[in-house]
Specification:
With about 150 residues, the chain is mostly beta strands. It is built from one helix and nine strands; from the N terminus they run E-H-E-E-E-E-E-E-E-E. The chain has one domain. About 30% of the residues are buried.
Length: about 150
Amino acid sequence: MSRFTAQAAYDYLTTWESMPNVGLLLAKWTLTPSTGHVFVSEVSGHELSGGGYARLTTIPGRTRTLDVPNSRIVYDAGDVVFPSLQAAAGTPKYGIFYDSTEAADADRKIIGWITLKGQSSPSPDTPDGSSYRILWDPVGLWVLST
């Protein structure tokens, strides 16, 4: 499941593919995502830590495609890798996209989040010290339809 906040829809989804600073952080199972979360500081207490974890400050290959026959807009991005992520960092459940332009988490706006799934199960894979790859759904990250 993926969601984005109403403010993010207004601020970011019209410029998703051209924004220079879209980051991704990974959050643990302890987080209960809410459309009321506006800033990274509101979720950072649930973020993975240690074990080789570091946020991604740039997400490659972001696209926004108008699908007229199906009356929808599809938002997507290139798959991402967290190199050398160890089990000590925790197991991620959510990927949270944010505007990484600002220096402080209290000023970094959340764009949206997505619930992560494993390669062969509905639960996310546990990091094992190798590259932790997240393959986005082939349909896209978010689909807005009428």
